[in-house]
């Protein structure tokens, strides 16, 4: 536990602020929609956008910050503890913060009658698969490019592209299983479960590639650090 607390402090305030901020943005959008005369269903979708749309982006960007802005990578590589373990603890702290915030948020929506997603047993699948997928992509690009600008650009482009071209993606049989925001955009339809499974599986595959790259952590060093 002391190591986990230490790594959480090393990760910085973004570990706790990013997930909470994402959910509050969803609440703000819902309030704006309600004040603009939107229907209850539309307001409910805005609330659901907090965990499914805003949370993955926030967690992904926070993960990029952890990977690309770690100024002690060269020191980490000289220690007995593998860098993969250290990075895993920091990402674990981020994942725990996101999970706690989102579970509490979903519980509040459920108790107040504003939850418009699937039942309680499947509610975690609203936010977990897209968060795993986008965070995995963020970490992978951050490691390969060793650039905050590149990683954030790629993540933001994918996120925004899926929002803007949701209808086109949904019309393609091969692309719809990997659409991140199915619950908000299309609801819990017949393809919802296959979409969640495809995102989870491909997201875990991305993290597997990250784990393989971390077996040669010296490749993460920039020219300045070498």
Automatic annotation (TrEMBL):
Arranged from A to Z, the UniProt key words for this protein are: Membrane, Transmembrane, Transmembrane helix
Q: Where are the transmembrane segments?
A: 12-33, 53-72, 93-115, 121-141, 148-172, 192-214
Q: Does the keyword Cell membrane apply?
A: no
Full protein name:
ABC transporter permease
User: Which species does the entry assign this protein to?
Assistant: Plantactinospora sonchi
């Amino acid at each position: 536990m002391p190591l986990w607390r230490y790594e959480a402090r090393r990760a910085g305030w973004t570990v706790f602020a990013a997930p909470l901020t994402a959910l509050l943005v969803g609440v703000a959008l819902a309030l704006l929609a309600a004040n603009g005369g939107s229907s209850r269903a539309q307001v409910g979708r805005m609330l659901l956008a907090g965990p499914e749309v805003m949370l993955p982006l926030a967690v992904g960007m926070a993960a990029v910050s952890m990977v690309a802005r770690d100024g002690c990578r060269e020191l980490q590589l000289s220690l007995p503890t593998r860098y993969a373990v250290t990075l895993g603890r920091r990402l674990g702290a981020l994942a725990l913060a996101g999970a706690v915030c989102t579970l509490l948020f979903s519980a509040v929506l459920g108790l107040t009658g504003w939850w418009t997603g699937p039942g309680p047993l499947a509610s975690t699948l609203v936010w977990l698969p897209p968060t795993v997928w986008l965070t995995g992509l963020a970490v992978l690009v951050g490691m390969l490019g060793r650039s905050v600008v590149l990683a954030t650009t790629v993540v933001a482009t994918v996120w925004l592209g899926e929002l803007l071209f949701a209808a086109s993606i949904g019309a393609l049989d091969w692309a719809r299983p990997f659409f991140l925001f199915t619950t908000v955009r299309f609801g819990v339809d017949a393809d919802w479960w296959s979409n969640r499974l495809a995102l989870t599986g491909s997201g875990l595959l991305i993290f597997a590639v990250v784990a393989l790259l971390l077996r040669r952590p010296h490749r993460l060093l920039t020219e300045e650090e070498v």
